[in-house]
Design goal:
The complex is a heterodimer. Chain A is α+β, with helices and mostly antiparallel strands. Chain A has helices at 20-31, 38-44, 72-81, 93-105, 160-167, 191-207, 215-233, 235-251, 260-274, 277-306, 314-341; strands spanning 2-5, 11-14, 48-58, 61-67, 83-88, 110-114, 133-141, 144-148, 156-159, 179-185. Chain A folds into 2 domains: 2-35 and 83-185, Cathepsin B, Chain A, CATH 3.90.70.10; 191-341, no CATH class. In chain A, 51% of the residues are buried. Chain B has a single domain (3-122), classed as 434 Repressor (Amino-terminal Domain) (Orthogonal Bundle). Chain B is built from 8 helices and 2 strands. Chain B has a two-stranded antiparallel ribbon. The longest helix of chain B is centred in the middle third of the chain and has 26 residues, at 33-58. Classes of the chains: A alpha+beta, B mainly alpha. The A-B interface holds A 16-18, 39, 59, 117, 122-129, 151-153, 165, 169-172, 239-240, 243-244, 246-247, 250-251, 253, 255-256, 261-262, 264-265, 268, 287, 294, 297-298, 300-301, 304-305 and B 7-8, 10, 12-19, 23-25, 27, 29, 32-35, 37-39, 41-43, 45, 72-75, 77-78, 81-82, 115.
Chain lengths: 344, 127
């Protein structure tokens, strides 16, 4: 935790968080005086998800995602907590930067969507062409901006040139200078109603999307693909794809085990909020599922590391994912029943 | 030192949720082993590809544009959008004989999109 001062002279406490989007959203709420934690935002915004998109390629690798669409956590959480936000996209770089400066001068902190590759304060391992990274701008400094990046544990400086590039990067999911800041926030949000709405939405997304690539069905689909991938596309390519899945699961700001631990943290907080033992039970289940996901990651890492010499096989890795799918299906069915009983 | 220790030894830890002894969730900053391995695999793969392309450029099979596109982890589609040049032209410019005949105005667009200087864009580093 580090304290910074915004342009308006208000103190801003930087919290280290696991995921960029929920971290930024919770920081914006905190700045307006609503104490809300990162997992809470993640749960209310229905961040947990699964999807495997074999036909969308990212540097030659199919996309597997453990979260909902970038931007939706912020949008849903803001709606459910009753915050009024200004959101804007720009065609012109100059206009976008001018507007940012104008809002900062008014003493408001601003959330931005950027391309993570062009933010040069990151070391190499973070950097790849991904257009959905969220940061908070605190105030302007000499030829740059003071940035509170929730993924890092302290605020950093960013050059104006870098920020311009990052905000107006081209490619899939273009941010087009996306900028958001709160106009007014309900000082006493109805957390219980928001939690229920978030959990219901999550259950629907995980269980009831009638396509075989999303939710639990998506997990099964990917598991079967992994099982076959060793013979189908050769060891090297299969290991590369598996490595990408593990990277998506553990690395890109998930808080461990593909957001499963973060969701367990949310369920724990929700259990305290409602005083519900059932939710506490589900939180423990979620942790257990997270442990299986992590085991899947370890098995996969061994496959990659040993280059085919170890006992671990693609079939075992896929099998672990099938177990995850089965247990998550049960969990979300239970969660669905529990949320129906809860009173806002 | 192994690659994964090397790339994770930069003093910028990420946060991970973990249960403490009381069962409460807290943030900690130790990266899990599986993450390190997979991240190292991807980065090693990228480096190997870049090196391969560099050799191909020196051998005259690819244009330097291909090298810088790979360096920025882009694809022809993304580069086309960033430079404002149609995709099929970008793909054509990956061939060295066509790249050599490009006008400075086209090269200028690529230097802007890839953030390299004009001199850099015409060659690749020699070692």
């Amino acid at each position: 935790m580090t304290t910074e001062v915004t342009a308006g002279g208000k103190p801003f406490i930087h919290h280290h968080s696991a995921h960029c989007e929920s971290g930024v959203t919770s920081a914006l709420f905190r700045d307006k005086g609503v104490e809300i934690s990162e997992p809470m935002i993640f749960g209310i915004g229905s961040g947990i998800f699964f999807g495997h998109l074999p036909f969308v390629k990212w540097v030659g690798l199919p996309i597997s995602t453990f979260r909902s669409h970038p931007g939706s956590v912020f949008r849903k959480a803001a709606k459910r907590l009753g915050g009024e936000f200004v959101t804007k996209r720009y065609r012109s770089v100059q206009k976008g930067m001018d507007e940012l400066r104008r809002v900062l001068a008014g003493g408001q902190i601003v959330g931005l969507t950027t391309n993570i590759y062009w933010l040069s304060y990151f070391p190499n391992r973070f950097r790849f062409q991904f257009n959905g990274h969220n940061i908070i701008i605190l105030h302007e400094i000499e030829n740059g901006f003071r940035v509170s990046d929730p993924v890092l544990d302290h605020p950093v400086d960013c050059l104006t040139e870098d920020l311009e590039r990052a905000r107006f990067a081209r490619g899939p999911l273009e941010p087009r200078g996306f900028m958001y800041y709160p106009l007014s926030v309900n000082p006493h949000p109805d957390l219980r109603a928001a939690c229920i709405a978030g959990m219901k939405d999550t259950c629907n997304m995980m269980l009831r999307i009638p396509l075989p690539i999303f939710g639990i069905r998506g997990m099964r689909f990917l598991a079967k693909r992994i099982m076959k991938s060793g013979e189908k596309s050769g060891f090297k390519e299969a290991a590369r794809q598996l490595g990408n899945i593990v990277r998506m699961q553990e690395e890109v700001g998930t808080g461990g085990a593909g957001f499963r631990y973060m969701y367990a943290a949310f369920l724990q907080e929700a259990a305290d909020l409602f005083g519900s033992d059932e939710l506490a039970e589900l939180s423990n289940d979620m942790t257990a599922i997270g442990d299986i996901w992590r085991e899947f990651a370890v098995v996969s890492a061994r496959i990659i590391k040993q280059r085919g010499q170890s006992d671990e096989t693609f079939a075992k890795a896929g099998g672990l994912m099938l177990i995850c799918a089965g247990r998550e299906k049960q969990l979300f069915k239970d969660l669905d029943k529990v949320t129906r009983k809860l009173k806002a | 030192m192994e690659l994964e220790d090397e790339i994770f030894n930069d003093g910028l830890p990420k946060a991970y949720y973990k249960q403490n002894d009381n069962g409460q969730y807290v943030l900690e900053t130790d990266a899990p082993w599986a993450e390190k391995v997979s991240c190292a695999l991807i980065i090693a793969g990228n480096r190997a590809r870049l090196e391969e392309i560099r050799k191909a450029v020196l051998a005259g099979q690819q244009s330097p544009l291909c090298y810088y596109m790979e360096m920025r982890q882009m694809e022809p589609g993304m580069l086309a959008k960033a430079a404002g040049i149609v995709v099929f032209r970008v793909r054509r410019h990956l061939r060295p004989e066509i790249f050599a005949k490009l006008k400075p105005s086209v090269l200028y667009r690529y230097t802007k999109a890839l953030r390299v200087t004009m001199e850099e864009l015409k060659t690749v580093p020699n070692n």
